Amino acid sequence: MSRIPLPYNQKVMDLFRNPKNLGKMEDATVVAVAGNPACGDMITFYLKINAQDIIEKASFESYGCAANIATSSIVTEMIKCLSLEKAWEDITWKRVTEEIGGLPSVKFHCGVLAVGALKRAIRQYFTQRNVAAPSWLPAEHTFEEKQALEEEELAKTLSKRMKPEDKAEK
Known about the structure:
By secondary structure, the protein is α+β, with helices and mostly antiparallel strands. The chain has six helices and three strands; from the N terminus they run αβββααααα. A hairpin with a 5-residue loop joins β2 and β3 (55-63).
């Protein structure tokens, strides 16, 4: 059985080969993870947020395909110097997909996952500070956050099933 390469555009391939803001940020204000290790798509987002709730720096680590790396890379570029509120409201998986010139439909989940990681980081920022969430932050999780949570739950379920049986149980 042969594998046909996915039709990625030049911008996706450029961001995959030369990702922007790749790497761990030691002085991050908040760190959030999203993904599914069972399928290989994992993202860790690092955000440096100032006292005015502006994203000063963003970086990521990714374990995944070209689309995963490209969408994570473009999100870190899109959110620089944005307020948390503006990042929350303006960054959607559809906008990310448009910004990179499109994705094959089987890879849309990579944009969803990148935005899910961003939104989880923003939500976690307020939780870590132990302050009331701002009025613009909904109590309910967004579509992207729900997808990231579902991927995590799936990964936990699969990892439990894949663990070797304890020999004492036999």
